[in-house]
Amino acid sequence: MEKVDIIVIGATGFTGKHVVKQLAAFSKHSTYKTITWGVSGRSTEKVKLLLKEIAENDVDTSKILTVISDVKDENTLSNVTRRAKIVVNCTGPSTLLSEYIVKACIQTGTHYVDISAELYHILNVYRAYHKLAEEANVLIVPSCGFASIPTSTGIILMDEHYKGSLHTVECYVELHIPRECYFGGRNKALVHYGTWESFVHELSNMKKYKNLKKLTFPETQNEPLPRELKKSFFHKHEGKWWFTYPGPDTEVDFMSQMYFKEKMGKKPVHFKAYTTMPLIVHFFIIIPLVFIAYYACRLKCFRHLMWKYPGFFSFGLMSHKGPSEKLRNDLKYTFTLTGKGSDSTDKPYTVKITGSDPAYHSTAAAVLFSAVTILLEREKMPKGGVLMPANVFYNTNIVERLKCNGINYEIVDVDSQPDNVSK
């Protein structure tokens, strides 16, 4: 049976196609030319169309392993996972589909990365499969896309170079949305429907996640929050108003810090992220609507309405067609992470991470180089388990790989430190 290094499952979906196209592009690079790979999807016709698109970019598709499978069919799924060293899961919503793939990977001894941002799913997988994955020496690494690779790698970089004992990290996340999309509208979509579907699942499961977190980490419930992180929901910073970032990054980092504390005896680094909006009027429109949706999503009928009419509920920013290439490339992002030590005399340390097309190009680069880093630096990682990105990539060169592929890292306001730090 032919076996390859990496197989992309869900390769014919909107995000999966971007991952496969990037994989095809970088596999022509001399550094990664020896990496073998394949694709998997449910539809033979869609897989053929994907290979035809790739072939138009001078890629020899005869060397690409193709496997047709349904993730809910145990037999066809295990036929996929046993034929790869690492599976890149691009299916969704993760809440409905990813557990099947995780289970199959553990059974066949295959490492796993995904692009999930669904916290309830991530914590459920951790509770159900961490010990099994650890015993099988298999790495199960969720949240390896735009959520939460930039923040995880930023904290890794900061922790390795900080002069002192890193105690807190604050992260300001800014999406630089194209002006023509400020108020949505026809043909102004920035995100594909698949992301919207997962978002609705996440809203409906948020209360369950909070309860499950209390059960999983009861010892942390009464820990005091460092003073510098005690900010009101809205606060002003460098002339802009910010509020708590709704992405999974803070919770994913929390889980990684719990692992570092348990396995390495490291003192936890406290992390919190914030974000802003282009115009003040957005604060008065979008945030109240999100709170309404949060409570309304507990009703099955309302969830189905949100899934049925994504354009209406998102002001046209989500669609089944997805964003145009121009809008994707015009959407930029900046993560500004500032770390402080436990000693008040320690100098703050700032890492800035920038890029474009967060949902697709950057997500594809993040998840692919997560897989490649496991492939090339496995000996530097824990033996197995359901682990967060920071736990797996702590001693690796993932930052250098990402810097060469569209995600930029810069160290600012630090004495005697260069702008770009090699690890």
Automatic annotation (TrEMBL):
InterPro entries: NAD(P)-bd_dom_sf, Saccharopine_DH-like_oxidrdct, Sacchrp_dh_NADP-bd. The chain crosses the membrane at residues 279-297. Keywords: Membrane, Transmembrane, Transmembrane helix. Residues 6-141 form the Saccharopine dehydrogenase NADP binding domain. One of its GO terms (biological process) is glycolipid biosynthetic process. One of its GO terms (cellular component) is plasma membrane. It comes from the Eukaryota. Belongs to the saccharopine dehydrogenase family. PANTHER family: SACCHAROPINE DEHYDROGENASE-LIKE OXIDOREDUCTASE (PTHR12286:SF5). This is Saccharopine dehydrogenase NADP binding domain-containing protein. It comes from Parnassius mnemosyne. The lineage of its organism: Eukaryota, Metazoa, Ecdysozoa, Arthropoda, Hexapoda.
